[in-house]
Automatic annotation (TrEMBL):
Gene3D superfamilies: 3.30.1240.10, HAD superfamily/HAD-like. The lineage of its organism: Bacteria, Bacillati, Bacillota, Bacilli, Bacillales. GO terms for molecular function: magnesium ion binding; phosphatase activity. SUPFAM superfamilies: HAD-like. CDD domains: HAD_HPP. One of its GO terms (cellular component) is cytosol. It comes from the Bacteria. It comes from Planococcus halotolerans. This is Cof-type HAD-IIB family hydrolase.
Length: 256
């Protein structure tokens, strides 16, 4: 059995222009031909990665940082945020003028008509400001939410909502996840379906939400453009994503 290659998207598969480099595309196809299985491991929602799944012909993925997992096109694990606790966060955030975005597997909804922090952070993913529905989280399973605040303001959420974890992914935005939810826990659930052992996994990433994934995988590769903490735990640091870093890592590891 080949390796299970767990691929982050932003800053790993996609370069600084949010494009998939030709070198990465070719390396992925060669790795698959050599018997390795490709899987996406991302903080994004399933509806946000449709185009790259289709382009790469991938039907196995960990999304929402481990809250929604699909293997061979079939959903094998979901974990929604507790709606009562999420409602507490909503009230707390609204008192501080911190808007939220709610996401299920199909769409994202904003708690407010417009906010510049939502616009700034989602534009970095090439997504528009979402439509508004204040109580969307009360009637739908929410696998991940976003709260928009600065790094300094984030501490009060950690202090007041210990059953959730808050993972910063942007200057003005944090993911809200169930405590213990992560790409790392997602890997453990995924390999139960793929038949791989943890030693057979190789994680590729760059961000803080990749940190635990890289610690639990059998081997880990950080992009040179990655966060210092993520690079600090990686087994190997490859070149910048804009300098064919992913393809060079595949060659270094003998995957191609």
């Amino acid at each position: 059995m080949g390796k299970l290659l767990l691929l982050d998207i932003d800053g790993t598969l996609l370069n600084s222009k949010k494009e998939l480099p030709d070198s990465a595309f070719e390396a992925l196809q060669k790795a698959r031909a050599n018997g390795h299985e490709l899987a996406i491991a991302t903080g994004r929602a399933p509806f946000m990665i449709t185009s790259i799944l289709e382009k790469l012909n991938i039907d196995t993925f960990i999304t929402f940082n481990g809250q929604y997992i699909v293997h061979s096109g079939k959903v094998i694990h979901t974990e929604a945020l507790d709606p009562a606790m999420l409602e507490e966060v909503v009230h707390f955030a609204e008192e501080r003028d911190h808007p939220l975005v709610f996401m299920n597997s199909q769409k994202m909804i904003s708690s407010i008509d417009y906010h510049p922090d939502i616009d700034e952070s989602l534009k970095s993913l090439k997504f528009p400001h979402p439509v508004t529905e204040r109580n969307f989280h009360l009637d739908n399973d929410i696998y991940q939410s976003l709260v928009f605040c600065t790094k300094e303001e984030e501490a009060q959420y950690h202090e007041n909502f210990k059953d959730f974890q808050f993972v910063r992914w942007h200057r003005v935005s944090c993911d809200i996840l169930p405590k213990g939810g992560s790409k790392a826990s997602g890997i453990k659930k995924l390999i139960a379906g793929t038949g791989h052992s943890i030693e057979d996994t190789i994680a590729f990433g760059d961000g803080l939400n990749d940190l635990q994934m890289m610690q639990v995988a059998g081997y880990s590769v950080a992009m040179d453009n990655g966060h210092p903490e993520t690079k600090g735990v990686a087994s190997y640091i490859t070149e910048h994503v804009d300098e064919d870093g992913l393809a060079k890592a595949f060659a270094h590891l003998g995957l191609i």
